[in-house]
Amino acid sequence: MASASPQTDLLLPFTPNSHPEVKIPKLIYGTAWKKEQTADLVYEAIKAGFRAFDTAAQPRHYQEGLVGEGIRRAIEEGIVTRKDLHIQTKFITPQGQSLDNMPYRLASPLPEQIEKSLASSLSHFTFSSPSDSSPEGNAEKPYIDTFILHSPLATVDLTRQALTQLATHIPSRIRSLGISNIDLPTLHPLVVSSNLPALPCVVQNRFYSSTGHDVSLRSFCRSHGILYQSFWTLTGNPSLLQSKPVGDLAVKVTERGVVKDEKEGRILALYALVSMGLRGISVLDGTTNMEHMVSDLEGLKAMRGLVAPGGEWETEWKNWVEEFCDLISESP
């Protein structure tokens, strides 16, 4: 059987060695396809306990301005400060945009498109910080915690150029870099032999069987201190949701009262096995159900004590993780 991952992972946020100020939780609230509900859902997610948010400068699928509005509301009400949050957004090329609604001019050269996209994103995440001396608050200098290339560009060299350009904004306007929708043959030369001034510290990919759950890519990421962020974790894995380790864990958390029914238990179990059982992964959670926002976060917290070394489920957890690793052909 595949060996289980170290129990010390649990819910500790990921902190890149090169960017100690960046802390990325195990669950990240995904804001795609929320449309006009985006601001309210982001606000409710913050109230529920989410502290990391994923968006993009892509009006076709994201309402980045409304993400900022939801965050702004929570900051103004004193629920959080900007420093409490991890905000990540993306640059997306014209191929992924609606040509009549995008954050830059189609005819602009790539470097200008990147700068315009970044500037647009920063404008959405400019917040005021309440202070005793100024009731209206002082505008904080905006920044993005992780700025992600939504996909590699046409060549490795162009991708390298884009990342090099973005690195010039570290640490003022950007804290760290990431890349999405990438495979290992493309990532490897960027990390190993490109001499980038700032390496990506995040890779965000679909976690599903069509890519073999990115086992080799995730191993490479771990060995180079890169966080793997999974999306499509639920919708892309119906067979895993019905698998034995997920089902066994779902029964336990339901019986314990951590969740209200086995359906919620299976969702929590899959999130737990991916984010706490496998190493070096955070999960994008895009629920629009406010009860589920709370149960996802609180459920993982409740499980942390049960499966940690010395916890009531320590031995069973190790077995569940081993079975889960076998299902996705996870290497030791």
3D architecture notes:
With 332 residues, this protein is α/β, with parallel strands linked by helices. The protein folds into two domains: 13-232, TIM Barrel, CATH 3.20.20; 236-332, no CATH class. It has helices at 38-48, 64-76, 110-124, 156-167, 184-192, 215-223, 238-241, 244-255, 262-277, 290-307, 314-327, and strands at 27-30, 52-54, 86-91, 128-129, 138-139, 144-149, 174-180, 202-206, 227-231, 281-285. The strands form two sheets. The protein has an eight-stranded parallel β-barrel, surrounded by four helices. Strands 4-5 form a two-stranded antiparallel sheet. Helix 4 links the parallel strand 6 (144-149) and strand 7 (174-180). The longest helix has 18 residues, at 290-307. The radius of gyration is 20 Å and the shape is globular.
How would you summarize the topology of this molecule?
Elements: E1 27-30, H1 38-48, E2 52-54, H2 64-76, E3 86-91, H3 110-124, E4 128-129, E5 138-139, E6 144-149, H4 156-167, E7 174-180, H5 184-192, E8 202-206, H6 215-223, E9 227-231, H7 238-241, H8 244-255, H9 262-277, E10 281-285, H10 290-307, H11 314-327
Parallel strand pairs: 1-2, 1-10, 2-3, 3-6, 6-7, 7-8, 8-9, 9-10
Antiparallel strand pairs: 4-5
Helix pairs in contact: 1-2, 1-10, 8-9, 8-11, 9-10
Protein name: NADP-dependent oxidoreductase domain-containing protein
Domain NADP-dependent oxidoreductase: 32-227
GO molecular function: oxidoreductase activity
